[in-house]
């Protein structure tokens, strides 16, 4: 039974984050391309360490503590992980026959990222010591962090497909921006883990981490909200978007449930005295909190649109 | 030619009438329903309702032929005649009863999976279409899978799907390579999950079962995709593109899955090496 709990603790946060992508793009849970992307992302997490071994040489050159943390975050974590996700997305998920719409790229990118995050999560959560706190902390930070990287990658790649003039630039940005975001996110925990980092700058690093997470999620959500209507319009013109989706009220409910779960997990983490203490406890949940709020906003907008179209229909 | 044969057959099988009534309205109205049939421009009858039903079942009266009920105001296409409409909607085409009728091969209909009679030329052309579609879907080594499909279609061998050696030796990477991602993931995860949760061990048995089923699964997925292409009413280049994307191989996914397999072998060897080091 314990083992089942471990598994659920590792998988459920990723499914919540995946729901965000599905509801934002009005994709179908049963879409085969989505699950293909998810499972391929999982394979990517197993293969990524091979790449990490290759890049490990860079960080063994003997840097100063903070520089070493930055080099490790960039070369050992961000570049291998985001590169592998990008190649899975472009090489296998995007060509999938069931990915018919432009906006599907956003869901697929999130699915690849979360497949990756799920397997990574399993490695952490299945370790017996203090697994509840580890699972809760990762559910609030690393898993939605991966979702934010995927969201940005998918949105920029969608933009590359619908804006032919800047196709190459946007396609390159779709890889570079998530690498930068991932490296910035990983830099702080790595610097804090390093015993040689001066104690005086530790609180500043904690605040910096909060700022990085806030910037990361704002960039991801804003880019996505800017690009999705373009993708939707392209799909509508090509006859691939019927405009159908789940009712707005349903999206709002999922957003509220996510919000409640986020608050519950934050309380659990704050009481346990884990890494949340470093940044004052509550702000650790900033990424999933913003995602849940954005989902509620999306739901309200969809609900208003549903009402307008219903009243037009009844007028007619 | 075929219509002539059908007309001839109808004419000889039933009692011939003196000719088409000049005006249907002149025919006397009776309590019993009596019918006339117009097949290939010739009138036949009168018939009882059950005679007409039998002829419809035998295929001697088609839905496009005309019927007139004594006392009725006009000739009506058989499929629009209320008394027999249901028969045309539900009727399975019957086998020819006369040696003079050559209706060709019987092949399964891709859309409905019903057995239908299709003229020989048309059957051959459908077979060509199916082969062409499957070739597009299978991509590399298409001939191997077409041969397996042909064996499965003939239905004479229970193990027509054959044995898949790559699946027996490497397992899930073959499914990823052939773009069956979800099945590949199940093949990878299910035994690991069972081992973790209930201590299941029996991977060799699973490999053997998978090696037996893999080709069958692949062919059935191909047929499902063909059906989907039909549902989407895809034709020409659009259809070919759909089938190529649905089938074929994914080098990226295959490589990734292969690397995972290699990594798992490497970790097993490394763990054994560590054990050996400890014991010596």
For the report, how would you describe the main beta sheet of chain A? none
Q: Please, what is the oligomeric state?
A: heterodimer
Q: Which secondary-structure class do the elements of chain B indicate?
A: alpha+beta
Class inferred from helices and paired strands of chain A: mainly alpha
Record field, number of beta strands of chain B: 6
Mass-distribution shape of chain B = elongated
Helix content of chain A: over 70%
Query: Number of helical segments of chain A?
Result: 10
Beta-strand fraction estimate of chain A? under 5%
Q: Sheet with the most strands of chain B?
A: 4 strands, antiparallel
- Based on CA atoms alone, the radius of gyration of chain A comes out at 20 Å
Regions with little confidence, pLDDT below 50 for 5+ residues of chain A: none
State the end-to-end CA separation of chain B.
89 Å
Please give a structural write-up.
The complex is a heterodimer of chains A (316) and B (280). By secondary structure, chain A is mainly alpha-helical. In chain A, helix 5 packs across helix 9 and helix 6 runs antiparallel to helix 7. Chain A is globular. The model of chain A has no long low-confidence stretch (mean pLDDT 88). The radius of gyration of chain B is 30 Å and the shape is elongated. In chain B, 57% of the residues lie in helices and 9% in strands. In chain B, 24% of the residues are buried. Chain B contains eleven helices and six strands. In chain B, helix 4 crosses helix 5 and helix 9 runs antiparallel to helix 10. Chain B has a four-stranded antiparallel beta sheet with strand order 2-1-3-4. Chain B folds into two domains: 100 residues, Dna Ligase, domain 1 (2-Layer Sandwich); 156 residues, no CATH class. Classes of the chains: A mainly alpha (316), B alpha+beta (280).
């Amino acid at each position: 039974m314990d083992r089942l709990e471990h598994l659920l603790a590792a998988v459920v946060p990723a499914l919540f984050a995946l729901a965000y992508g599905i509801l934002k793009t009005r994709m179908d849970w049963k879409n085969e391309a989505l699950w293909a992307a998810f499972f391929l992302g999982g394979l990517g997490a197993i293969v990524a360490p091979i790449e990490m071994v290759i890049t490990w040489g860079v960080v063994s050159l003997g840097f100063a503590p903070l520089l070493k943390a930055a080099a490790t975050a960039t070369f050992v974590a961000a570049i291998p992980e985001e590169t592998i996700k990008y190649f899975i997305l472009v090489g296998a998920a995007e060509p999938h026959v069931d990915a018919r719409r432009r906006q599907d790229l956003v869901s697929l990118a999130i699915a690849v990222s979360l497949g990756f995050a799920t397997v990574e999560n399993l490695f952490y959560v299945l370790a017996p010591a203090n697994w509840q706190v580890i699972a809760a902390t990762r559910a609030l930070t690393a898993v939605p962090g991966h979702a934010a990287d995927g969201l940005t990658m998918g949105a920029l790649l969608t933009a590359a497909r619908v804006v032919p003039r800047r196709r190459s630039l946007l396609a390159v940005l779709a890889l570079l921006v998530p690498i930068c975001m991932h490296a910035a996110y990983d830099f702080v925990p790595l610097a804090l883990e390093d015993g040689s980092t001066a104690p005086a700058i530790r609180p500043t690093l904690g605040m910096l981490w909060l700022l990085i997470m806030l910037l990361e999620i704002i960039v991801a959500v804003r880019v996505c909200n800017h690009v999705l209507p373009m993708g939707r319009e392209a799909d509508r013109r090509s006859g691939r978007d019927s405009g159908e989706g789940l009712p707005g009220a349903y999206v709002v409910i999922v957003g509220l449930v996510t919000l409640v779960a986020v608050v519950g997990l934050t309380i659990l983490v704050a009481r346990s005295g884990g890494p949340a203490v470093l940044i004052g406890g509550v702000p650790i949940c900033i990424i999933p909190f913003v995602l849940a709020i954005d989902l509620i906003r999306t739901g309200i907008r969809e609900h208003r649109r549903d009402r307008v179209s219903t009243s037009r229909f009844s007028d007619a | 030619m075929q219509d002539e044969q059908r007309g001839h057959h109808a004419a000889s099988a039933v009692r011939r009438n003196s000719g088409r009534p000049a005006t249907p309205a002149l025919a006397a109205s009776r309590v019993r329903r009596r019918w006339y049939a117009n097949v290939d421009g010739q009138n036949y009858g009168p018939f009882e309702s059950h005679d007409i039903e039998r002829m419809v079942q035998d295929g001697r009266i088609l839905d496009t032929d005309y019927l007139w009920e004594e006392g009725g105001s006009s000739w009506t296409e058989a499929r629009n005649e209320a008394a027999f409409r249901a028969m045309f909607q539900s009727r399975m085409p019957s086998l020819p009863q006369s040696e003079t009728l050559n209706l060709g091969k019987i092949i399964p209909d891709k859309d409905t999976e019903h057995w239908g009679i299709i003229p020989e030329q048309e059957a051959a052309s459908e077979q060509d279409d199916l082969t062409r579609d499957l070739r597009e879907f299978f991509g590399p080594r298409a001939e191997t899978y077409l041969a397996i499909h042909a064996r499965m279609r003939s239905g004479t061998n229970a193990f027509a799907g054959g044995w898949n050696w790559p699946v027996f030796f490497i397992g899930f990477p073959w499914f990823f390579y052939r773009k069956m991602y979800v099945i590949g993931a199940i093949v990878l995860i299910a035994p690991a999950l069972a081992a973790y949760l209930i201590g299941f061990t029996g991977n060799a048995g699973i490999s053997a079962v998978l090696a037996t089923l893999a080709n069958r699964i692949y062919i059935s997925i191909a047929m499902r995709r063909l059906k989907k292409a039909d549902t989407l009413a895809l034709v020409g280049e659009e259809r070919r593109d759909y089938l190529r994307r649905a089938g074929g191989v994914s080098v990226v996914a295959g490589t990734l899955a292969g690397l995972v397999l290699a990594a798992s072998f490497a970790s097993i060897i490394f763990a054994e090496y560590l054990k050996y080091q400890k014991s010596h």
